[in-house]
What does this fold into?
Amino acid sequence: MNRIKPDLDIVSDLLKAALAAQPSSSFIQSLLYQYQERGGLSKKQLEGLYHKAAKIAAIPENKLTTLEAIIKKKPTRYKSVPPVPSPLYIKDESAGRMLAAILAKYPQHKRVLFLKAKYDNNETLTTVELNELQKFNKMLQ
It folds into this structure.
């Protein structure tokens, strides 16, 4: 980051002043550590610092205003809306109708009963099994 006055660091000054006012605050300690290690803070972290520092009377108003300007300059990151979960398996209605028609005429047909159980358990019917169903359905008509 290119600063006009590199020796002037408002965020560091605010962190140190807030830590001096509230030495037991683990939030401010962690922000100071992250600022020293990474060299910067995220927009959310800066907003948290601003809210903490605004409650401290010893911090000058001009530093808070500068921090607010720094926060406004940072881009706001939006999370995209997660996609609506779709069902894992969509039942094939034509296969269900074929199974019902075959079992209406032949209720004890073992292979069709097996396919019906598979269909009811939301398991996918393979193309071979669908071809069998179509063949059984053609025999009925």
